[in-house]
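Thread: "does anyone have the structure for this chain?"

Original post by V.I.:
We have the sequence but no experimental structure in hand. Need at least a predicted one for the grant figures.
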Amino acid sequence: MKNDAGLQKEFKALPNDEQEEIINTILSQPNESRQEQKIVAAIKKLS
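Reply from O.Q.:
Generated one for you, tokens below.
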């Protein structure tokens, strides 16, 4: 399992449009209290 720093590094390595797409997908979903978990889950799916 990757740590947050590793995931953040991977996320930043993605093209900007892919980063934006992931963030927009997450932000458009209800239940914003879980945004961070959703971001981490989305990044893990890509790796």
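V.I.: this helps a lot. The chain is about 70% helix and 0% strand.
O.Q.: and Helices lie at 4-13, 16-27, 35-46.
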